[in-house]
Amino acid sequence: MDEIIKLIHGDGGKHTSQLIEEIFYKNFQNKYLLDQGDAATFQLGNELISYTTDSFVVKPIFFRGGNIGKLAVCGTVNDLVVSGATPLYLSTGFIIEEGFERKKLEKIVETMRDMCTQANVSIVTGDTKVVEKGSLDEIVINTSGVGVNYSGYKKNKIDAGDKILITGGIGEHGTTIAVDRYHMKISGDYQSDCALLTPFLSVVNEYKEAIKCMRDPTRGGVATVLHEFMKTTEYGICLYEEEIPIKPSIRAVNKLLGFDPLYMACEGRMVLVVKREEADKVLRMLQSIESGKDTCIIGEFAQMEDKMIYSRNSFGGKRIIPELVSSILPRIC
Amino acid sequence: MDEIIKLIHGDGGKHTSQLIEEIFYKNFQNKYLLDQGDAATFQLGNELISYTTDSFVVKPIFFRGGNIGKLAVCGTVNDLVVSGATPLYLSTGFIIEEGFERKKLEKIVETMRDMCTQANVSIVTGDTKVVEKGSLDEIVINTSGVGVNYSGYKKNKIDAGDKILITGGIGEHGTTIAVDRYHMKISGDYQSDCALLTPFLSVVNEYKEAIKCMRDPTRGGVATVLHEFMKTTEYGICLYEEEIPIKPSIRAVNKLLGFDPLYMACEGRMVLVVKREEADKVLRMLQSIESGKDTCIIGEFAQMEDKMIYSRNSFGGKRIIPELVSSILPRIC
């Protein structure tokens, strides 16, 4: 057991899970937390409520396609959406380093305001702290969010043949953060996919029975989400290599860096496991939404002798997609 | 207008209010936020819900009488209590510096667990981030909280003669943080008053009509809370100098440091404005609770030519208690 906290404890992979289990779950035992969803869902009066939180430490705080404020609103709103809830109210806590430019703060807050308007949520409570220069790298933001779970969506048992859908290109957020952080001189259309998942709420509400699992693949990317899904079943996962939507520019820079886009964070995508018979219908519904037009089916659950995730190409080539065990890039969200 | 964010923007006084108004209220306009309570209160289905958040950046993270985890649970629970709500569920977001000792993290989380048990609340959702060494001073914690507002408590218009009550000695948290942070070699019973206000919930529920305002005097201390109360009325405040409960040890170190305990944070006290006719009854009820046994009436609202807060001693001496305009001590919570 590590004596100190390391960067890998924050990468969303195996070490993060271990730390959370050994320290947080061990002490804060309750059925809502131990359910390990992106949000906790509980009854309050006559309503089913979902509740979630995230802290944002992204570096750089302004990046192509967004900033830390956009991420903070989208991240929390999206965690509610993939829990089947309609987001309503947010809280926000700012911690700011002394000397931070007021103009930057205004820009961040204006972006948050615009995203709240788009998502139809209100920031109803907040807190602001300022710390001495040198004791924080610019700014961090926490958001929590409360939504009403009208859908009553619940995770369902996965069966062999159930399909895996993703609502758009993968790895775009994580890759853009890498390019922007290291000022890489690469041409190409890098842009974070950071966006609200609220447009998909209608599909979630309508197809809640057909959708067995949903998650937004942030830290650790699509591969990490799939490993989480796989842990709840007896089946392995077969990915259709050529079907995984990866922009050429994203593929190129990941090759250069030695990264695999499957492990790179998305901040505006949803991964869904859908009952095999309904997969095509849900696919078409998601594709009919502007931000879901690139939705594809990228794989399926399958009976295997050795339960694992592998990616297969049309020539029959297979590669194993293991669980993330070392940090690729800290501070991507 | 300042071009950069300074420490005084985080001290809870005049500059904090200005920053919040000019940036946050301006952009996040909604009636719940603009109500400026310690928590936002809204209807959700058939329940009245209160919702609040705070980030904690206290230094040192372990201090006499508590640690950052105790503060994080008490702070959020207390904001719900002074809003008239019974706390139910909390979220927590940890940001940890690489290299932080795992044992310290365990200690903090165990304290949070114990405080949750005492407060009868559950941490149902959370998030953990790790940042590179040097980009954060050890650890910061955000908590948000949701409670049901059974009391239906609402702020009421203050009248001349209404009494000001405090549930115990003032300035103990802020002073202890100063002593511990600067390793001052002072003998005396310094200890933070950090504690839950949940034992007072029964009084809040029973006397909600008599209680006109409530607040926990954290950043900026009792003086700052009284200035906030005064802004909502046409009356000034007369404090009874000798009645303000200040431990001799707390008084001594504040004198040494040139601080006034009236501006030093409490983390387990409640300031109440109570209808004059009911003040003695509420006083006795609060005194009958173990953690409220030192409750006293420390002043009253009064008609004045120049609206202000002054403190009067039994010899007739008066001193003005102005609004806090410069930071005494950053990172006290």
TrEMBL record, chains A, B:
Residues 37-148 form the PurM-like N-terminal domain. GO terms for biological process: protein maturation. InterPro entries: HypE (IPR011854), PurM-like_C_dom (IPR010918), PurM-like_C_sf (IPR036676), PurM-like_N (IPR016188), PurM-like_N_sf (IPR036921). It comes from the Bacteria. Signal peptide: none annotated. Residues 160-301 form the PurM-like C-terminal domain. Belongs to the HypE family. This is Hydrogenase expression/formation protein HypE. It comes from Anaeromicropila herbilytica. The gene is hypE.
